[in-house]
From TrEMBL:
The UniProt record lists the keyword Transmembrane: yes
Name listed for the protein in its UniProt record: Iron dicitrate transport regulator FecR
Highest taxon of source: Bacteria
An annotated Gene Ontology molecular function: sigma factor antagonist activity
Domain FecR protein: 120-206
Membrane-crossing residue ranges in chain numbering: 89-109
Keywords: Membrane, Transmembrane, Transmembrane helix
């Protein structure tokens, strides 16, 4: 796992998934997930294994003898023998079906290609579409992608420059949404552990939909959808929506709380501001390809803060607003 495994281990993750964790344990797990992309990746992989195991566990927990006794009490003695023979056959059929399912699922998985971004990286899909994946994100598509359709699944965040093909729409599934395009550029992101999906359109035209709503999005517009089915469209206000890819940041009288949010996304860090009085302090500056060290040193100088960093966690202490 990682260096925090002694704090959040597999047992605690399973308690969390089974809704058996205490309030303190729930907070601990959710904070651990946000500390670094590797934690989120490990959590998602554990969750997939857990969900698959439930199917097998439910079947294994079936006690034929107990189930039979419950049924036997409801039927006559004469019918008992024949009925039990039929039930035994049904259990055997069910066992065979489960075995076939266990064989079929890996086979289906092998028909898919999975791209995992261990670092923020650009990939080119078979149809010529360019995709930037943020560190820790995944892209899944069939091996016959572009033969009959161009459908993919995104986990995390990605920026797409879609190769135009009016005969084959490009469809991206993320959480409970689907983005359909012909050829365009857009940023698609999953936030808050899959509870929020956001899209920012750079050029072209896309259709953004979930089970309840369907919106046409134009350049300069953004859409936010939640796991409850709500959806809203606004003008794009955040200039730094793709800074994780470009490493370019623009701040114009931006509150420090928003600066920290953008920096966390850009550099894959968890940044906390100890002094809450600094949240409304504003910053006006630009960063172009600056390292995280250079950015933090700038904040130190401007706001008189001290920076304490431990791997992917940064704590900003003390300080005051610019005069």
């Amino acid at each position: 796992m990682d260096e925090n495994k002694n704090i959040v281990d597999d047992t605690l993750i399973l308690k969390y998934l089974e809704n058996k964790a205490s309030v303190q344990e729930t907070v601990l797990v959710e904070k651990w997930i946000t500390l670094k992309s590797d934690n989120l990746t490990y959590f998602n992989e554990t969750k997939q294994i857990w969900e698959t195991a439930i199917i097998a566990k439910d079947f294994e927990n079936i006690n034929v003898d107990i189930s039979w006794e419950e049924v036997k009490n409801k039927i006559s003695p004469k019918e008992s023998v024949k009925f039990r023979e039929k039930i035994a056959v049904l259990w055997k059929v069910a066992a065979i079906l489960l075995l076939l399912l266990a064989i079929a699922v890996p086979a289906l998985w092998n028909d898919s290609k999975v791209i995992i971004a261990h670092d923020t990286t650009e990939f080119t899909l078979p149809d010529g579409t360019s995709v930037w994946l943020k560190k820790g994100s995944k892209l899944i598509y069939d091996n016959n992608f572009n033969d009959n359709n161009r459908e993919i699944e995104l986990i995390g965040e990605g920026f797409f420059n879609v190769k135009k093909n009016k005969n084959k729409p490009f469809i991206v599934a993320l959480n409970n949404t689907k983005t359909t395009v012909l050829g365009t550029q857009f940023n698609l992101q999953s936030r808050h552990h899959g509870k929020v999906t956001s899209l920012v359109l750079v050029e072209g035209r896309v259709t953004f939909a979930n089970k309840n709503n369907k919106l046409v999005v134009l350049p300069g517009e953004s859409v936010i959808a939640t796991d409850t089915g709500t959806m809203s469209k606004t003008k794009t206000k955040n200039e730094n929506f793709d800074s994780w890819k470009t490493k370019k940041l623009i701040f114009n009288q931006t509150p420090l709380s928003k600066v920290i949010t953008d920096l966390s996304s850009t550099y894959n860090l968890t940044i906390e501001l100890e002094n809450s009085k600094l949240k409304n302090c504003t910053l006006t500056t630009k960063f172009d390809q600056a390292s995280v060290k250079e950015v933090l040193e700038t904040l130190e100088l401007l706001f008189k803060i001290s920076v304490k960093r431990e791997r992917d966690f940064v704590l900003l202490k003390g300080g005051n607003c610019l005069q």
